[in-house]
Amino acid sequence: MTLTITKIAEDLAAGRCSSREIVDDLLVRIKAHSALNAFISVDEDAARQGAEAADRARRAGAGVLAGVPIAHKDIFCTSGVKTTCGSRMLADFVPPYDATVVEKMKAAGCVMVGKTNMDEFAMGSSNETSFFGPVRNPWDPQRVPGGSSGGSAAAVAARLVPGATGTDTGGSIRQPAALCGITGLKPSYGRVSRYGLIAFASSLDQAGPLAQSAADCAHLLSAMAGFDVRDATSLDVPVPDYAATLGKDLKGLRIGVVKEHFAQGVEPAVLDVLREALREYERQGAVLVDVSLPNSAHAVPCYYVLAPAEASSNLARYDGVRYGFRAAEYKDLEDMYKKTRSEGFGPEVKRRIMIGTYALSAGYYDAYYLKALKLRRLIADDFARAFERCDVLAGPASPSTAFALGAKNTDPVSMYLNDIFTIPVNLAGLPALSMPAGFVGGLPVGMQLIGRYLDEARLLNVAHRFQEVTDWHARVPAGI
Ligand code: GLN
After folding, report:
1. Global pTM exceeds 0.85
2. In which domain, by residue range, is 458 found?
3. Active-site annotation holds for 350
4. What is the number of structural domains in the chain?
5. How distant is the alpha carbon of residue 84 from its chain centre?
6. Catalytic pick among 19, 87, 148, 398
């Protein structure tokens, strides 16, 4: 069972099946694979009703996504539907409104079947920081799916939904897409509204699609992107019909091969897979150009000052007063704050709040926060220079294939290094995707393609052309 969004849309349009039938089928699959722990909540009745409404709307004439089932990462506020952000702090939080992404996808006719598991407040690379327990990788349940959008990635890889939303602050769409063998795109900063998206690090957070193929991601991105007056950083430019621009040939396309990304620290077998993928691009007429991003070596430390700094500020709102968790027993107001935050947040979130608060404190602001901002500029300048000589950049999305559950969660630094190739892209605000490029030891390998600002259409086309001549993206884990 490998129904893609493209295929479902065709079948629905041709009247070969109904959205209700597809949703019924997926609900059975979701139950059968509940051990993956990909979902935090599934509302079967609401999903069935949504499907029936979409079927009725389709008869009256509707868009390509009408009736297509999807899941939302549990970081997107959904009106009347519990939104936990993977945290005890919000375990019972029911938002009174929809995030713009949710609203737009509803308007496009997508049917939400559930909310997916995630690292707590999107902090993590393995989905092990979720209050609701780890997600398992469909390719090997003893391994992590990646994080923080691990529930969305596992759900798509296990064919529990044909597409899902995720968010990417430092790699949280691309790294789990890579580890689960699916396609995931982080749009340019500003392309998709952050309104109603629970904030982690606001200058880096960006929502995007995860699906089986670039063509499917194209449909989802067209539905979710666009200007929103409620997000001051959203960009007021038209949204292309991304699916309609697929299919251009790649003759003369200049692919930048980042020297630092094909170096020590990456599993050699992963690099072999990527080199073979690059040869496929050469066969299609692309030319490879050597480029360097010298400052990207500083991206992880830079990110781990800026992201926690922003997080410490964003997470100050969880104080037990307005909404969310409140400790049961306390002496006075200050004690209530302390107990609420001590009991409501998990260890990784507390670590980030402490790092961020320290970095922003009066005596250290210049030494850490300001310095990290300067580095951020240097990293962005590296990309600008590279893009003078090439059209896209290619390299690994992650230094290794999926690792074992528990292998890295006692060593934060080794966990943080998972995002060494994805983080620079967020710091520069650029679009990038990960797509399946092959396998090592039965586990998927993701290739990252990075584009110029707002060049999502080209990225999707470059991935699509690869997927027309390879079938890595169509492989399904054993038992699925
Ligand atoms: N793994 C990175 C972190 O823990 C990135 C997370 C993300 O993109 N949300 O911060």
Report:
1. yes
2. 1-480
3. no
4. 1
5. 17
6. 148
